[in-house]
């Protein structure tokens, strides 16, 4: 059956962006899992709620990117599971760095995308990821200050 929304990619440029969109889907999937784990480790309700809000953004990104990938390729994306730290402070550091790297990655996809919908969705997601990074950095600094005030060594 002919699908009018299915677009056949032929150039290396098209193949590259498709691979990157699939990588974005996988990244969002892993963020969903990791942030659920991070929220469970959160030391207080405020941080837990904020991390769960961030996780909801990641669920939305995952759904949107999966739909884009399926629309562009005619098939469902494949995800690769990655490890998430077992310690809260390490998890915050991991999440902060991942969010920061993801901002640039999504901006790059948006810059290369020919489809206006794809451009808009990845630009919006990049904005969300930057906001998430700010929250994770805030919690990292908050816990670092707390540890210094209470004489806790970093390795503790």
Automatic annotation (TrEMBL):
Residues 92-142 form the Rubrerythrin diiron-binding domain. Gene3D superfamilies: IL-4 antagonist (De novo design) like domain, Immunoglobulin FC, subunit C. GO terms for molecular function: metal ion binding; oxidoreductase activity. This is Rubrerythrin. It comes from Hazenella coriacea.
């Amino acid at each position: 059956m002919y699908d009018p929304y299915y677009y056949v990619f032929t150039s290396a440029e098209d193949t590259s962006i498709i691979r990157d969109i699939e990588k974005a889907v996988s990244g969002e999937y892993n963020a969903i899992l990791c942030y659920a784990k991070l929220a469970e480790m959160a030391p207080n309700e405020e941080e837990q709620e904020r991390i769960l809000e961030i996780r909801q953004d990641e669920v939305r990104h995952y759904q949107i990117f999966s739909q884009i990938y399926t629309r562009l390729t005619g098939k469902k994306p494949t995800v690769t599971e990655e490890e998430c730290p077992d310690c809260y402070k390490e998890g915050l550091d991991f999440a902060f760095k991942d969010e920061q790297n993801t901002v640039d990655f999504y901006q790059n996809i948006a810059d290369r995308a020919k489809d206006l919908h794809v451009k808009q969705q990845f630009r919006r997601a990049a904005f969300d990821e930057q906001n998430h990074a700010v929250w994770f950095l805030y919690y990292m600094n908050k816990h670092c200050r707390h540890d210094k005030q209470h004489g806790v060594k970093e390795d503790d």
